[in-house]
Amino acid sequence: MDEDASERQPPPLPVTWRPRNMRLVGYALAALIVLTMVALAVVLPDDWRLSDRLGLAALGVVGAGGLHLLARPRLQATETRVTVVNCIRTHVLEWPEILDARMPIGEPWPTVDLADGSTLGVMGIQSNDGDRARRALEDFRLLLRARGEAEEPRPPQ
């Protein structure tokens, strides 16, 4: 049975969320590409030079590197900040900078609304993970409600 969202407690910090399906597919394909290219480099006819064989293996490693970029996203929350690691860029945010997190039905990943008026995609939670993604977003929103409010400035004394 699911607990009522209002009764749930935020998860203990630090916590990291990673997409499961994309990581499995990305790293499995990366391994397959590297193994295939290395095997091809070994079994090529003798008229292929060593540089050609090394180039073929290197091409497999480059392809695996590209898949690593797709599989690396994560969302990490600590006591003081939130780190959003997407494919290329990493964003380090303080809790009060994040106003809300939402993932409308049909969207691939959630977005967070930032205090400066911009939005940021959070690829560390992906909708194709189903209930796991829904729970991760709920947990993140609980943490956001618990930690996201900036303290009111105190008047000088």
UniProtKB/TrEMBL annotation:
InterPro entries: CFP-6_PH (IPR019692). Keywords: Membrane, Transmembrane, Transmembrane helix. Pfam families: bPH_6. The chain crosses the membrane at residues 24-42, 54-71. Residues 72-141 form the Low molecular weight protein antigen 6 PH domain. This is Low molecular weight protein antigen 6 PH domain-containing protein. It comes from Streptomonospora alba.
